[in-house]
User: Fold Catalase from Massilia litorea.
Amino acid sequence: MSDRPILTTRQGHPVRDNQSLRSVGERGPATLENYQFIEKITHFDRERIPERVVHARGTGAHGFFEAYGTIGGEPASKYTRARVLNETGVQTPVFVRFSTVIGGKDSPETARDPRGFAVKLKTVEGNWDLVGNNLKVFFIRDAIKFPDMIHAFKPDPVTNQQEPWRFYDFVANSPEALHMVTWVKSPWGIPANYREMEGSGVNTYKLINDQGVAHLVKFHWQPRQGVRNLTAAQAAEIQAHDTSHATRDLYNAIERGDYPEWEFCVQIMADGEHPELDFDPLDDTKRWPEDQFPLLPVGRMVLDRNPDNVFAETEQSAFGTGVLVDGVDFSDDKMLQGRTLSYSDTQRYRVGPNYLQLPINAPQERARPRTNQRDGQMTYVVDDSGENKHINYEPSLLGGTQEAPQPQRDYHQYVEGHLGRYQTTNTRSDYKQAGDRYRSFADWEREELVNNVGGDLKQCPEVVQLRMVWHLWHCDEDYGRRVAQIAGIDLEKAKALPPLPGKPMPHENRQGATYTDGRSEEPATSEEVASAK
Assistant:
């Protein structure tokens, strides 16, 4: 063992596994007694006051969602009992907040960064928050690693500057991130604006029907305006004149009546483990290939009204991945389970324990809250608990609230396994999907990608350079070779490295399926760049 200090909890306990939530078996659900994770994530949620730790720079708009009532040509009720997805002719109010992730509140909107795409649907059965990004994958698959990931991507705590070596040092030790890096360092890392970008729930959820039957599901928003991205040079040109071009574009479009619209689509998979696939469908660093699991239209969303006050609505809007309606449920996706604790915990700290009393966050009147929760900072509404106002507990023979009736058939997941900390053993796709994505890019997208990564690696220590080229070469030989050439890295020296300790050898390179994703075939034109200024 080296003489490096041992990582501990804030209680001084040594940490033996900082990579994995405690779960029931490798693929089973996480458990509430994950003290190490809870301590880590709740401290992380409180690192900034009052600005969001992540997604600080954002803009928002109001609109509506309208369901088609079908999924893949069949009644939506075959898959889900959620009324918001079943009932046609109903316009459900929505509020959407778009954002960048890493930068602060005044950072430029031309940053190379994932874009947040958070939708609050105020349904007749209560709120449903679908909190995701513009890209369909993420950097990590276990929530316990999230604070470390953000720390590595944020500015250096000593220099207060974002350093490429910090980003790639983390990625070099986390091969699961290669797929997301391939997306972010391509033109897809800088959407032209918020109207012309996709949205995705990223995580795997479940749909539950009225028979208690579950299906795994991925949620996606496909823009009717098309998809458009920027090269690094185009983004720099815009940033020289305007650091708020995407906010301006969205606001002006809505003001002139050019309302942006997205089609809401799902990918459906039978509930289960799926050993026939070469990736884990619960792994949020992987896409479900659309030739196997097509995008099925479910409804449409239109944004038609700007906020009256940015602070009261956009900044105080609060989202949580645990805010689901009946008919939509959690999977055992470890990032989803960790986010479900972290997101709402962050809002209670950032906005206050009564953040759901604010009009922007409160459910619609037909689904107004009736809880037995009381008091707390900034209380100004008392939940209606029935005729007897004295009863703020349950159960009671004297009045107050009562539990809702149980569905005739509910979903019950059978869980069995040894409690412990597990890392997924299905890692072949860590390299395969990144390679597939590289090969599916248009020539100009590949050129932009390798120049961006190669330019970054020039600023990194040799140990990081060599490991990153080793990873990229195992994704695709051309990918690794071109990045090494641009960065001036000895390819043969990189290829001679052994696998990372504790990590399996990557699979053999091979061609894979491409995806149908509606991407722009060409970068934004000079006229389009000029119009964004």
About this structure: The domain at 22-360+426-532 is CATH 2.40.180.10 (Catalase HpII,  Chain A, domain 1). The chain has a mean pLDDT of 90. The CA atoms of residues 244 and 361 lie 25 Å apart.
